[in-house]
Amino acid sequence: MARKKKDGLSEGKELVSGTKAAGAKQKVDGNFKFGLAHLPMSEFTAREKRIAIFLLYAKSRAEIAKILELSENTIKTHVQNIFGKTEVKSQKEFMAKYLFGTDDF
Questions:
Q1: Counting beta carbons within 10 angstroms of the beta carbon of residue 28, is it exposed (0 to 12), middle (13 to 18) or buried (19 or more)?
Q2: Which end of the chain is least crowded, N or C, by CB within 10 Å?
Q3: How far is it, in rounded angstroms, from Cα 57 to Cα 34?
Q4: Which residue ranges make up each domain of the chain?
């Protein structure tokens, strides 16, 4: 059995694939590109990267707070920063844009 790390993921499990999610589309007309490969991980802090992955796994803020042993207010602040950097307004929109590769949500 794989040992769980504090971030809630098993050791050795890749956090972000370098390839697009299956069926993800790219929108090259204009400034937006969609799909997991276009998640701007380089703009995130280490904590934001972990939280972004949990958001893509559809974890709630409360669940993320429990897993990372942080307060819900701290998670809320990080989520707001993530949404600001990715120009989305909700977890649903974040998932649609970076997991499913679409802006239709």
A1: exposed
A2: N
A3: 17
A4: 45-98
